[in-house]
Structures are given as C-alpha cells and as structure tokens.
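User: Can you predict the 3D structure for this chain?
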Amino acid sequence: MLDEQTVQVNLPNQLGYERVAMGSVAAYAKSVGFLPERIEDLKTAVAEACINAVQHGNKGRKDARVIVTITFKEGVLGISVFDEGSGFTSPPRDPDIVRIMDNLDPPVGFGVFLMKKLMDELEFKTLPDRRNEVRMAMRLSK
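Assistant: Here is the predicted structure, written as structure tokens:
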C-alpha cells in the first residue's frame, strides 16, 4: 500500500533504465536533506539492485517489470526494488576478491557486496505474490 509520501517507479526490464531509478532516488533524497556524498551512495546501491533485478531476478524477460519504491519516514529513506523472478535459493555471500583475482571464481557478487557496504540496512525477501524484494534503508544522519 502506497502512502502520500511514497514514490513508485515502474521500469521496463531492460538495462539502462536503472538510471531513471537513480535519478528518482537522488531527487527524493535531496528533497529530504541528504548530503551529496550520501546521495551518490544511494544511487550506486539502487543501480546495483535494479541491474540485478533485470539480469538475475527477471532473467532478461522482456515482459517482466522492475518496480522501485522510495519513502522517507522518521529520518530513514527506504528503497525497495521488486522483480518477478524466482528469488535466491540461499542468501548471497560476499565475493572472495582473492579467488576472483586468481581466476578461481567468476567476477560476480559485487553488486550485493556494494549494497551491503553503502546502505545502513539490506534485506532480501520472496513475497507471497511470487515477486522478490530487495529492501534497503539509509538513515539521514550517520
């Protein structure tokens, strides 16, 4: 349920549209008082979540959508990115940089790693309506 302070962005399942979500989050965060460096962190995390939704969640399906909601309540900016995929079988783990550099592991997993490092909260959910949600939060003051 959307309230009067929630913004919803409905995106095609195509790379490049993450920029629309980034711009929306940046404008919203600026309007509630976030500092420019924190806004850059928000933009990076949102871009990673949207790219993951397109590539891994929706698996590039042209008929799928990526939905981003943005809200601000009690000093916390909340962002959710929804996809229509099957979700994680297990929670993603941080990439092993040494193994990747030694070409022992593929160079994947950096998006979730960045989201964890840049945001104050990060949560993954599979919803009853067969959608997945990446929920992120950042406090105004840190």
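The mean pLDDT is 89. Residues 7-139 form a domain with the Heat Shock Protein 90 fold (CATH 3.30.565.10).
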